[in-house]
Design goal:
It contains eight helices and five strands. 54% of the residues lie in helices and 14% in strands. The protein has a single domain, classed as P-loop containing nucleotide triphosphate hydrolases (Rossmann fold, 3-Layer(aba) Sandwich). The structure holds shikimate-3-phosphate. Its cofactor is Mg(2+). It is an enzyme of class 2 (transferase).
């Protein structure tokens, strides 16, 4: 049986915060559909995110991201994991606050770096100084993520299920 959520639970936060893994676990626990904006963008373009950035550039990716997020939010209620930059756009924040509850998965920079440093799937970190790039994004974005309705701290050592339970607790 699927839960009838009144609003979509929208996970926001930096790359490496665990939005996808925790989002899937939250959706499983709530028996609600799991939605993932990055995965939907890749499906629609039939390309990976790095390929989209490389071929069409970040501004094009952001347009697609906006379209997909509004479509997903209008389509059905569930748990939506967004890409790390999605919440930066005022238009996205507007539709998210209308149709959903924004939950910031708040992880500190050390933990984020530990999780992303060996992965090559993030175009914004494919630069000579990826830690510098992550640090800049972190400092720019934290004040915006802090506008989310709820914030859940992601600590090292917490399992995905424990994080998911924290999210569900915060929603009560
Ligand atoms: C981005 C984060 C990525 C993806 C794209 C841009 C960002 O998603 O949307 O590479 O701007 O932080 P994750 O947060 O799932 O890594």
């Amino acid at each position: 049986m699927q839960a009838r959520l009144k609003k979509t639970v929208v996970l926001v936060g930096m790359m490496g915060a665990g939005k996808t893994a925790v989002g899937k676990a939250v959706a499983g626990m709530l028996h609600a559909p799991f939605l993932d904006s990055d995965a939907e963008i890749e499906k629609a373009a039939n390309m990976t995110i790095p390929e989209i950035f490389e071929r069409d550039g970040e501004p094009f990716f952001r347009i697609k991201e906006r379209q997909i997020i509004s479509r997903l939010l209008e389509r059905e209620k569930g748990v939506l994991s967004t890409g790390g930059g999605a919440y930066m756009a005022a238009e996205n924040r507007e539709i998210i606050s209308k149709e959903g509850v924004a939950v910031w998965l708040n992880a500190d920079l050390d933990l984020l770096w530990h999780r992303v440093r060996h992965k090559d799937t993030r175009p914004l970190l494919r630069v000579p100084d990826p830690l510098g790039a992550l640090t800049r994004l972190y400092n720019e974005r934290v004040p915006i993520y802090a506008k989310a309705d709820l914030s859940v701290v992601s600590e090292p050592g917490l399992s995905i299920d424990e994080m998911a339970k924290r999210v569900i607790e915060a929603l009560k």
